[in-house]
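Reviewers of the previous submission asked for a worked example of the structure-prediction workflow described in the proposal, so we include one complete record here. The input consisted solely of the amino acid sequence. No template or homolog information was supplied to the procedure at any stage.
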Amino acid sequence: MESFESIPIIDIGEIDKAKGAKIDTLVQKIRKTYGEIGFAYIVNHNIDPCLVENLFQKSHEFHSLPYEAKMKIELNELHRGFIPINTSTDRNSKLAVVTKPNQSESFIMMREAFADDPAVQKGDYLAGPNQWPLEIRGFRETLNPYFDAMTKLCQKICRVIAIALGTDPESFAAEFEPPTTFLRLLRYPPSPPDTPSDIYGSAPHSDFGCITLLAQDETGGLQVRNRQGSWIDSPYIKDSFVMNFGDMLQRWSNGLFISTPHRVINTSGQERYSCPFFYEPKINAKVSPLPSCITAENPRKFESIVYGEFLRAELQNGYDRHSKTN
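From that input alone, the workflow returned the following structure tokens.
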């Protein structure tokens, strides 16, 4: 299988078409691109550009708050709130010896779940309400519509994924009811020229969920590792999202889809802002290779795991807040 030197672009304008040649073409592109590269830009996704613009505006406003104000909503046991710089380390990275924390800070929200939510009543891991910065007018009212729009887009993408993997779309969709969803507003400070090589904005890693949709600014810094081990830049493209698949889709697809390593190194001399949205299975989903993906030529490669147990282990290893409390 050949390596790659650039990140491809996929037009998903026909994603709402249930049948026909155009949806078949999209399915084929997804199958090929995420079986060989694992990353692509998606365009014609029908997300209102104003939602994206307003999201970045609120991200800038949040990160401009005094440190003390942000610490009022420091990351809690429900994985919501402010993640200060130097508190997240990719200790599980298989791609580099990572001993230094990521050089970024962020705000993170998840699916809102109040006391009457079934997930809260069952005591599901991470089910609960978000924390919000009260100092910023319209913050919550800006993030929630974006969050909902991205959730709906990912539901459509999951249908295409199911078709590409030869499994029933409705049964696959049930594995995301309700989905585990995260929206993160990241700020990366610029790296000084003399920064040691073992310090990253985001250390080399693969995502541990299913779908990541990244909105990024024009600063640059995201890099994707190809099969030869070279790091390929993934620069800003207007009105696009960078979409990659994570470890759970690699497992469900029995390796037909790949979870590709990536990293962030901000050598621009200015701050970098990005807003990744993560769409992952329901917390109690059992993730194992789909029968449609197991053949004589591609025998079963992965054991079954419970997503929530896997997620808990990842958060405990990667975040000071969780390692101290769990």
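The chain has one domain: 9-325. We consider this example representative of the routine output the project will generate in years two and three.
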